[in-house]
Amino acid sequence: MIVGYFQYCPDFASPADNLCRVENALSGIEADIVVLPELAFTGYLFQDREELLQVAEDPDDSRTVHRLISLCAGSGLHLVTGFAERKGDKVYNSAIVLGPSGIVHRYRKLHLFCTEKEYFDPGDMPLSTWKTKGARIGVMICFDWVFPEVARTLALQGADLLCHPSNLVLTYCQQTMRTRSLENSLYSITANRTGHELRPRGEMKFTGQSQILDPKGQVLACSGPDDQGVVLREVDLSIARNKWMTPANDLFADRRPEYYRRG
Question: What is the rounded distance in angstroms from the CA atom of residue 49 to the CA atom of residue 162?
Fold first, then answer.
């Protein structure tokens, strides 16, 4: 399978311009799965909920989504992208998975970071996986990396690969995701953005350093803090199904959940 990410710096509140950049970057590539950053078309640091609602879209009636589906249909690609999802009077920090046939999966961020709590509604969907070309894929978003339960839950559902759209500002995530890949014996793709946003409520500098990790936590590909571009790697997802760390230790068979209780 060929998987990858597109690391770039979205312009704030400019979905049409950001869509054109994504279309241009992915035009003609040959890949099975590409991951885009969190909130890939809107930017991140909103002043308030009202400003967010001006750019949030319902994925089922979205020009952005329709154009991306057309892109996937022309290449056979599956695209995992962060998205400001508007549904009725709710607005979620979401990730949607798009393929040639349309929307195939969606996830609403469970663990909101910092000011996100002021304008996004908390995710309300259980963690789940989706399948393509014989591979099972799990999706998490940015700050979910802090919560090992997310990656473990998806791994226990059979995920071979974690797709992780992100807008990272802390410096610990990329290293921590090596542990998430290792402790669950699966591949992971963290697609981060670059640049900074100077907004009325402050400034955020994003760390870049998107990466593809193997089931041992080794780095297969990594971009720099300010690099922009598509990075692809070929991976053998069957390797992620081997949970043996030693001849005597299976990561999942050795679990003893009956003792994993709150004190």
Answer: 29
Domain range spanning residue 133? Answer: 2-259
| Closest among 5, 2, 3, 41 to 222, alpha carbons compared | 5
Q: What is the CATH number of the domain that holds 244?
A: 3.60.110.10
Token duo for residue 181: 């890949």
pTM of the complete model: 0.98
In the DSSP assignment, the letter for residue 89 is T
Task: Using the structure block, give the residue that is written with the tokens 């590909």.
Answer: 221
Q: How confident is the model at residue 262 (pLDDT cuts 50, 70, 90)?
A: confident
Q: Is 243 known to be catalytic?
A: no
DSSP 44: S
Active-site annotation holds for 109: yes
**Cβ-based burial of 258 (10 A; exposed 0-12, middle 13-18, buried ≥19):** exposed
The vertex-235 CA angle with 233 and 240, nearest 5°, equals: 140
116 a catalytic residue? no
Q: How many CA atoms lie within 13 A of 242 on its CB side?
A: 12
Q: Catalytic residue among 38, 57, 85, 197, which?
A: 38
